[in-house]
Every structure is written in C-alpha cells, then in structure tokens.
Write a structure and sequence with these properties.
Layout (H helix, E strand, L loop, with lengths): L5 E7 L14 E7 L8 H10 L8 E10 L3 E3 L3 E5 L10 E4 L12 E7 L2 E8 L5 E2 L1 E2 L7 E4 L5 E3 L5 E2 L4 E8 L4 E6 L2 E4 L11 E2 L1 E3 L4 E8 L2 E7 L6 E3 L6 E4 L5 E3 L3 E9 L5 E8 L1
Antiparallel strand pairs: 1-2, 1-3, 3-4, 3-5, 6-7, 7-8, 8-14, 9-13, 10-11, 11-12, 14-15, 16-17, 16-20, 18-19, 19-24, 20-21, 20-23, 21-22, 22-25, 24-25
C-alpha cells in the first residue's frame, strides 16, 4: 500500500501500562508522517514526569513506546526510562520580547518584568505586518523560546510566535508552565481636545524603550484625559496642568491651543498617580 505511515511516541507510568485500561492515560507526542526520529530535551521529559505526578528529586520511571498508524495502530516494545524530576527555580527578573516590530534585536526589545518566580509581565505594541516574535532570557539569542505547537512555548524551539492582530497587548509569560497570554491592553486619550472628543478614545502605543505610552498627532484647544481599554473603570485626570495625573480624578489637562503634539503617559509604581506630558511640537 503506497500510503504514509504516521508515527507518534506515547509516555506513561509503569503501573498504567498493564490491565484492561493499559496506556489509557498516556501522553502522546506526534512525530509525523514517515518521520522516523524525534528529539526531546531534558526539560521536555521533566515536564512529562511532573505531569504524571512523579515526585521531584526522587528517582522514578516512565515508559515509552512508538506508535505507527496506517489503517491500524502498531506498537513497539516499551522501554523503561529512569528519571528524576526537578522543579526549576527561576530567579531572573527580566524576559525579552524580540520581534518584527523592532527588527529582531533582543538587546533593544520590549522587556517583561518578573511579577512572581518565573512569571513575567509587560506590554508590547505590534504594528500591522509585524506580528511575529519570540522570548529570550538574555539580551541576545543564546536562550530563547518558540512555539510548542499547542499554544504554549518550548525552550530553543524553531518557529515564531504570533500576535493575533495589530495592536497593544499586556504580555504574561509563565516559564514554570511554559505558557503565555496576550491580552489587548492600551491607554488612550479622550476629551474635547482629542480626535475622538468624548465619544471615542484615541489609542496610544507602548514605547518599549522608554516604557511609557505615547501618541503624536493633532489636538485642538480643550480637555484631555487618559483611560484604559476604552472604558472609564481605569482613568486618570488632574485639576491643574502639570506632570501628574490622579486615578479617577474628574478633572482634565487643558490644551490651550491647537497644534501637533506628542503626548506621553506612564502609571507610577503607586497606581494612584501617573506621570504624563503634553508637548507642542
């Protein structure tokens, strides 16, 4: 029969490979059609072992077999692997996000900052046509993460990750679970001085080098405030022109003359205040 054979690997614990429900709880890793080899890193086997509940820092066993499928499945003899699972302690404070949006240079990429052990969060704005990116542990390509094919990430994986659409996102990465999320997130300007008036926000972009929101364009005389994600739940205002905005303040910055402006905004360490500027170009 001239047809491709599909191969896969199955992992399980020895106790689950006997009886009527043998291999029912196995973890299956696709290899491909007519592909006769598969590379796995130690971190991959460690993750499989932990998923099966093997205790960390204790020698245990996994069982692995190959599966070949044409019109039916044929299984190889199982091999027992001796493993000692470990929980990786991650102490780094920064993760880098090089991508098309900044010409793939980790040294100048957006930075995600640690919010917990192995968990990083920050912001990236992806322009149209520049949606591909990766994560790196360092400001170089020595250690990087790419897609695992199922929505997560894998250490030193080929291929690129993709933002779902152009725009600004809050990016959260968990290296403990090798997972990440991109949540739409952007501050915008609103008020009678802005292009959308009080009816619609004008979105700002995240300036990853200065770690602040920024926008350049034409304003008219009138009021200007900042709010998050086109909603009033998180907004900042001020009673007097200056450099500080206050959370949920009813006032607004007063733009005194029409012109082309650059506007910047950054929430302070204490989110009750934010630093901003409205500069006539």
């Amino acid at each position: 029969v001239d047809a491709p054979v599909t191969y896969a690997l199955q992992f399980d614990v020895p106790a689950d490979t006997i009886g009527t429900s043998a291999w029912a709880n196995a973890t299956t890793i696709a290899v491909g059609e007519d592909v006769l080899s598969k590379s796995l890193q130690g971190i991959d086997l460690n993750e499989i072992a932990l998923d099966f509940g093997l205790p960390q820092d204790v020698e245990g066993h996994l069982v692995v077999r190959a599966v070949a499928t044409l019109d039916r499945a044929v299984y190889s003899e199982a091999i027992v692997l001796t493993v000692t699972p470990f929980v990786q302690v991650i102490t780094q404070t920064v993760l880098y996000v090089p991508g098309q949006y900044q010409n793939w240079d980790p040294a100048t990429a957006a930075q995600l900052h640690a919010i917990d052990a192995g968990v990083f969060q920050g912001f990236v704005t992806f322009p149209e046509g520049a949606l591909e990116f990766k994560f790196t542990n360092l400001p170089n390509w020595d250690e990087f993460y790419g897609p695992n094919g199922t929505g997560g990430i894998t250490f030193m994986a080929d291929g690129n990750l993709f933002a779902p659409a152009a725009g600004s996102y809050q990016v959260t990465v968990n290296l403990n679970t090798l997972s990440y999320t991109l949540t739409p997130y952007s501050f915008g300007i609103i008020g009678t001085a802005t292009p959308g008036g009080w009816d619609a926000d004008t979105d700002m972009a995240w300036d990853h080098q200065n770690e602040q929101w920024t926008w350049t364009g034409n304003l008219v005389a009138g009021a200007l405030k900042f709010r998050l994600n086109d909603a009033w739940a998180t907004n900042y205002g001020t009673d007097t022109n200056g450099t500080v905005m206050y959370f949920d303040n009813q006032g607004a910055h007063n733009v005194t003359e029409a012109g082309n402006y650059t506007v910047t905004f950054a929430v302070d360490a204490n989110p009750a205040t934010a630093t901003y500027s409205v500069t006539l170009n």
